[in-house]
Structures are given as C-alpha cells and as structure tokens.
Amino acid sequence: MDKTAFIYIHGVQPNIKTANIKGYSKKTHERILKHLKRSGKDVSRIKRFEIVWADVTFPFKKGLAAYQFDADFKKGRKRRGGKLGIPKLLRNFVYPVVVDIIFYVKNKGSSEAPGEMIVLERLHKAVKKAKKEGFRKVVIFAHSLGSVAAYDYIFRFRKKYSFPKDMKLSTLITFGSPIGLFASSMGYPMSSKIEKPSYAKKWVNFWDHDDAVAGRCEPHFPEKFVKGFLRDVAVDTAFINPLKAHERYWSDRKVIKQMAEEIVSSSS
Fold first, then answer.
1. Is pLDDT of 81 > 80?
2. pLDDT computed for residue 189 by the predictor
3. Which of 123, 128, 195, 200 stands 20 to 30 A from 63 (CA)?
C-alpha cells in the first residue's frame, strides 16, 4: 500500500475512574493490519495515529458524579438491599455520556460564533503531524461521537480546523455513529447543500441493529451525495445489550475484517 496514516478517534467515555485511555486503538489496528497482510498488502508503510480527548471532559464527569450522587455507595447498597439499579446506571453511563455530547456541541459552537473546538483541534493536529511525516493518504476510523467530530472535520464545517485539501482521504470508516441524529437535530436532514469532497474517496458506515446509538447515514443525505460515495453496512456483533453492542465494533473480528476489506478495495 501507499504510505498511509490510519487515524483513530474514540467516542464518548463514561469511565469516571480514569482519563487515561491511550492505546485504545492498538488491538483493532493490529487486527486490521493482519487482514491486510492476508490480502497481500504491504503494511510497512502504514502508521497508526490516535486521537485521545477523554481527558478534556473527565473533570466535569468526575465532579458531576460527586455532586449529583451519594459519594458513599456502601450506604446506597444498604438502602437498596445490595442493588444500585438506576442510580448506578445514571452515574456510570448516562450522565457521563450526556456531558461528553453537550460539551462537544457547546465547544464546537456555531458558524457565527465558533468555540475552541478542542476535539477538532486534536484531530487536526494528528492529520498535520501525519502530513509533516510525509503521509499524503489517510484512513480515518471514527466511533460514536468521534464519528460526528470526523464528519465535521472531513466536510470542513469549521475553517480553523478542517481536513487539508492537499491530502487524500482514502476511506472514512464510521461505526456506532449518531450522525443521522445530529444532522436531524441541527435541522438539516437531506441537505441539498452538502457536496462530496474532492479529496475523499469513500465513506463506509457500520451499524448494529442492537446498538442504541448507531444508525444509518444514507437516508440523511441526497441521492447524488450517497451514490458511489456513502454506504451503510449492517453488522451483528452478537450482543443484544445495546451498550455492549455499541462498544463491540472495536473488538469484533467479523466487523474488523469487513473494515479491512473496505480498505483493500479502496487501495485497488
């Protein structure tokens, strides 16, 4: 393969015990390379770049948990006969996820009043670093809220941090993506204004029916945009649990193999 930067960006992080998630994409990357090798591809010119932004919202989530819920969970267990139930779900997942989403929307700002855009800035720095190291072709893997950030970045919705036009996006791979939800909530479903970027070859969106967050992307864009560029791929990670299904893309061998196959077809 040509010299290619594989860039990974994570989604929401409900973990309120640690902000250090560095290396989260390593195993996924190694498995993709393994499949590429089996397809006869030379992977020596591929390098992994990872965007970590979990630390940005960590203090807010930690503070929310301390203020909103009983800090002494032993008391909580005693009152509920050993079960924490809904309070535990709210504390350990729902509230942290909502904090991440609200932060991203607020931090990105609007066209008239753009914010600091910390997540987009980190993504942009990773791409600039790859460019400085001589990479001109990029594959982006984006999960959950990270796919929304990648979408904003690739389609250059903020001039300050946007994908360089002198680089090529070989493949955008989104998974567990709520892009359709974000597009609808922002009031521009089936936008006729959005165009395929000349520097992007294709976009593949993986989604699991059991994933409570993921959805299709094709229906939210006009036919002229979708044709030959955007494709939804339904997968089954074998988890009925909607939260587990949302996480599983990173480790499910069948899904990872399909991702690798999309990269192979893009490089042909």
1. no
2. 53
3. 123
Summary mean pLDDT of the chain: 89
Contact criterion met (CB below 8 Å) for 190 and 218? no
What CATH number does the domain containing 157 carry? 3.40.50.1820
Query: Could you give the strand order of the β-sheet that contains 203-208, starting from the edge strand earlier in sequence?
Result: 46-51, 4-9, 137-143, 168-175, 203-208, 230-235
Per-position DSSP letters for the chain, written without gaps between them = --SEEEEEE-------S-S--TTTTHHHHHHHHHHHHHTT---TTEEEEEE--HHHHHHHHHHHHHHHS-S-HHHHHHHTTT--HHHHHIIIIIHHHHHHHHHHHHHHB-SSSB---HHHHHHHHHHHHHHHTT--EEEEEEETHHHHHHHHHHTTSSTTS---TTSEEEEEEEES--HHHHHHHTT-TT-SS----TTB--EEEEEETT-SS---SGGGS-HHHHTTTEEEEEE--S--SHHHHHHGGGT-HHHHHHHHHHHHHHH-
pTM above 0.85, yes or no: yes
Find the domain containing 53 and state its range: 4-267
Residue 42: closest CA among 86, 87, 3: 3
- Check pLDDT > 70 for residue 188: no
Residue 198 near residue 168, CB atoms below 8 Å: no
Q: How many domains does the chain have?
A: 1
